[in-house]
Amino acid sequence: MNFAAFNEYMICEDPIREYKAAGISLGYEFAVRYPTYRGAYICNIMEMEAAVDDLMIPEENIRFGVNNKWFTRKEMLEANKEYWFTGEKALIRILSDKPLEKGAHKVNLKMVHKIPYTGYFGNYLHITSDYTRTLTLN
Question: Rounded CA gap, 64 and 29, in Å?
Fold first, then answer.
C-alpha cells in the first residue's frame, strides 16, 4: 500500500503561531496530522525531523503536543498510551530564542513511523512521510 498519498495532509494549512509565555517569545508552532488513514500511539513515531526555511531544527528544540500534553522526542518513544487519532491536529513546537519574522516560511516535516498492525513476528512496516508546505506567520 502506498501511504505517500497522505503526506500532503501531514502539515496543516493553519498559519504558524508564535509561542509566548508571560509575553516573552519562546518560539513558534504549526499544526500537523498523522499521515495515514488510521491513528496510532505516538511511540510508533520512530524519527521526526523539522526544518523551517531550509534550516534543520535540533531535536532538543522540538516539542510535540497532542491531546493537551507535550512531549520531547525521547518521551514520544515511550508514550505507548498516548493515541494520535486520525484527523486530529497535533502541534509541532519549535523552541527558539530568535523570533520568526512575519510572512511566508517553508516548513518541512519528515517522520519515520511504524505501522503497528503490521507487526508479524516482530517485523513492522516502516513508512517515511516527508512533506514541505509554505505557511504564514501573521
Answer: 10
